[in-house]
Design a protein that fits this description.
311 residues, mainly alpha, Formate dehydrogenase/DMSO reductase fold, 10 helices
Length: 311
C-alpha cells in the first residue's frame, strides 16, 4: 500500500498521547502517585495538545473535511466510525480528569474510564486495518498488539521525560522502575516486530493470476500492466520503493525505534539524565514514523496481481 503521511502522524501521535494517559491513569487509580501540580500543569495539558495535533493531522487525509462528522454515523458496522467516536471521548475524559485534578479529588471511576477509553481507541484504530481480511499482513491479532505496545513505549518515554523536567535534579523515587518498564516494553515490542516481519515474509498470496483475472488456466503469464500510463490503482496500492530502500528503512526502524532507546534507557536506570531520555524519545518517535510507514508499505493488496509492474 502507499503510505499516507497524515495517517502516519495521526496514529503515532495519538498512540503517544494514549500511552501517556494510560500510565497516568494506571499510576493514580489506587492512590495518588503523581503530584497534582505535575498532572494539571504538565502531563494532562501535554497529552491533550498531542491529541489535538493528531486530530488535525487526521483531517489532511479527508477529501471533504467538513463532512468528517458523518463518519460516526456507521458506528454499528464500521471500526473507523467507532474510532471517530472514541477519540473525542478520550479527549473529553482528559478534560474531565483535568478539572477533577484541579478540584483536589479524582474519583476512581474517572481513572478507570480514562484507562478503558484509551484501550477502546487502540482497539478501534487497529481494527480498521485488522478487519481487512484480504490483506494478510494486517489481518492478524499482532496488528492490535503492535499498536498497543508502541503506544505504551512512546507514552512511557514521554512520561519519563516529563517527570525529569518537572522534578529537575530531584529524581523521584521509582524513576529507575519507569526506565526499566520502558526498557521491557521496548524489548517486547522489538521481538513482536521481528516476529511480524518473519511472518510477513512467509506469506503467500491466496489469489493468483487465474483467480484475479477470472481466466482459467495453469500457465497464465502477464505481458502488460493494462495501462499506457499510471492510474489510481497503480499509484495508491503500492509504495513504489526499491528493495534496497525497504531494507534501509528496516535498519532505521530497528536502530531508532528499539535498539537506540533501549541502550540509552539501560544507562539511565542507575542515573536518570534528561538528555538521555530526551534523545531516546526523539529517536523512538523518528523510528516510529518509519515503522508506521513500513506498516502501510508492506501491506500487499491482492489487486497488485493484476496491476503489477511488468518489465
Amino acid at each position: 500500500m502507499r503510505p499516507q503521511f497524515s495517517i502516519i502522524f495521526f496514529t503515532t501521535l495519538v498512540g503517544m498521547a494514549q500511552g501517556l494517559l494510560f500510565f497516568v491513569a494506571l499510576l493514580n487509580i489506587e492512590e495518588p502517585f503523581l503530584s497534582t501540580p505535575f498532572l494539571s500543569m504538565l502531563a494532562l495539558p501535554v497529552s491533550f495538545i498531542i491529541l489535538i495535533l493528531s486530530l488535525v493531522a487526521s483531517f489532511f487525509h479527508l477529501g471533504r473535511p467538513e463532512r468528517a462528522w458523518r463518519a460516526a454515523m456507521m458506528w454499528r458496522t464500521s471500526w473507523l466510525s467507532r474510532e471517530v467516536i472514541a477519540l473525542p471521548t478520550v479527549m473529553a475524559l482528559t478534560v474531565i480528569t483535568f478539572f477533577f485534578v484541579n478540584s483536589g479529588m479524582v474519583p476512581i471511576w474517572v481513572w478507570a474510564a480514562l484507562l478503558i477509553s484509551n484501550l477502546a481507541l487502540w482497539i478501534c484504530t487497529a481494527k480498521i486495518y485488522q478487519c481487512i481480511q484480504f490483506i494478510q499482513e494486517w489481518s492478524h491479532p499482532s496488528t492490535l498488539s503492535n499498536f498497543i505496545l508502541l503506544g505504551l513505549t512512546s507514552g512511557g518515554l514521554l512520561l519519563e521525560l516529563l517527570l525529569i523536567i518537572w522534578n529537575g535534579s530531584s529524581v523521584p523515587l521509582g524513576m529507575s522502575l519507569i526506565s526499566g518498564t520502558n526498557f521491557i516494553l521496548l524489548f517486547l515490542a522489538l521481538n513482536l516486530k521481528l516476529w511480524i516481519w518473519r511472518r510477513n515474509q512467509k506469506l503467500k498470496p491466496k489469489s493468483d493470476l487465474a483467480s484475479a483475472t477470472g481466466i482459467k488456466g495453469s500457465n497464465i503469464r502477464q505481458t502488460s500492466m493494462g495501462f499506457m500510463g499510471g492510474s489510481f490503482n497503480t499509484r495508491e496500492f503500492f509504495h513504489h520503493q526499491t528493495d534496497r530502500v525497504i531494507s534501509n528503512i528496516r535498519k532505521i526502524i530497528l536502530l531508532m525505534t528499539y535498539v537506540g532507546p533501549m541502550i540509552l534507557l539501560a544507562f539511565s536506570m542507575n542515573s536518570p539524565n534528561i538528555a538521555q531520555i530526551a534523545i531516546a524519545l526523539l529517536m523512538h518517535y523518528i523510528g516510529l514514523l518509519a515503522e508506521r510507514w513500513m506498516f502501510f508499505a508492506e501491506a500487499n493488496h491482492p489487486q497488485n496481481l493484476y496491476y503489477q509492474r511488468v518489465s
